[in-house]
Design goal:
21% of the residues lie in helices and 28% in strands. It is built from eight helices and 13 strands. With 299 residues, the chain is α+β, with helices and mostly antiparallel strands. The strands form three sheets. It has a nine-stranded mixed beta barrel with strand order 1-2-3-4-5-6-9-10-11. Strands 7-8 form a two-stranded antiparallel ribbon. The chain starts with a helix and ends with a strand. It folds into three domains: 27 residues; 194 residues, Calycin beta-barrel core domain (Lipocalin); 44 residues, no CATH class. β5 and β6 form a beta hairpin.
Length: 299
């Protein structure tokens, strides 16, 4: 082998090593055991959102009509008692999560990133091997089909094929046409997930949320990752096949949140316009109504 050829091979190998090391150093380690912090949107996540509270949601009239027909007693139906949260919402609930990598034994390249989620005992696979998403007619699941890529230290995950669920736990629906983009990045012992949810059926603009989790230095026990759930008949005299709901205009609870917070309906009924500073002019133009002697509320 000539000296020139040998030098060319060495140079090519050095370029490969440098490029590989650069890519590796830009991929931060997300593996470990993580728990929810609950310091953002706590009223929505822990005690639960009020009926009629659509603040900050870019919903359309179809979503609003669905939510206004919502009856929380629907959750007593056996088919709904163990119904899992879908991937756009699941990390907002009770959470212990374990993350680990799956590597090709021959190349040690990351093939997939796995998530074990205690909430409804769901498992996600985020494929990192460049595979394409399946046909739109493929099976939909609670976690959907996820692929990931690295953008510097940020893991970017795209998920499709997600079952119908909700955007907010007071009946605001999420369709099965939803497309979820997630951004995971880590600062020390805090893991942040930012979700960018597109739903052409129920949202007029993407819904953006952030959720923080904290590293648990101790291994999670099996009990911390299990979610035993068994459906039972909770309402004995309910007719077979009946689904609790309200007909349009008949839900008696929609005004409670508005009256308690003294906000105008123009705000509490949500919509993309309510998310921007210009909406202040709309609020100032809203006419207050009297909700109690000597007190005023919003219409």
């Amino acid at each position: 082998m000539s000296a020139v050829r040998r030098a060319a091979i060495v140079a090519a190998a050095l370029v490969f090593v440098v490029a590989t090391c650069t890519r590796a150093s830009a991929q931060i380690d997300l593996t470990g055991n993580w728990g929810a912090i609950f310091h953002e949107d706590q009223p929505e996540r822990v005690p639960g959102p009020s009926l009629g509270d659509y603040l900050g949601l870019p919903i359309n009239d179809n979503a609003r009509a669905f939510a206004e027909a919502w009856d929380a007693s629907r959750l007593t139906i056996p088919e709904h008692q163990c119904r899992a949260h879908s991937s756009p919402y699941i990390l907002r609930g009770p959470l212990n999560m374990r993350i680990w990598e799956e590597r090709d034994p021959q190349t040690q390249q990351v093939v997939a990133i796995h998530q074990d989620i205690s909430n409804f005992q769901q498992r996600r696979i985020i494929w990192m091997d460049g595979r394409a998403h399946p046909s739109q007619y493929a099976e939909h699941t609670w976690m959907g089909f996820s692929t990931g890529r690295w953008d510097g230290d940020t893991l970017v995950v795209t998920t499709t094929h997600i079952k119908q669920m909700w955007h907010r736990r007071n009946g605001v629906p999420q369709s099965d046409r939803v497309r979820l983009t997630e951004y995971y990045f880590r600062h020390g012992n805090v893991l942040t997930q930012v979700t960018y949810t597109e739903d052409p059926t129920y949202l007029t603009e993407p819904l953006v949320k952030s959720t923080n989790m904290q590293l648990n230095p101790r291994p999670l026990t099996p009990q911390q990752l299990l979610y035993p759930c068994q459906s039972v008949v909770e309402v004995a005299d309910r007719p077979r096949g009946a689904v609790p709901h309200y007909m349009p205009g008949e839900n008696p609870f929609l005004a409670e949140f508005r009256d308690q917070t003294h906000l105008p309906a123009a705000a509490t009924r949500g919509g993309a316009a309510t998310m921007y500073p210009e909406f202040k002019a709309t609020l100032e133009a809203a006419q207050p109504i009297t909700t109690a002697p000597g007190r005023t509320g919003g219409r």
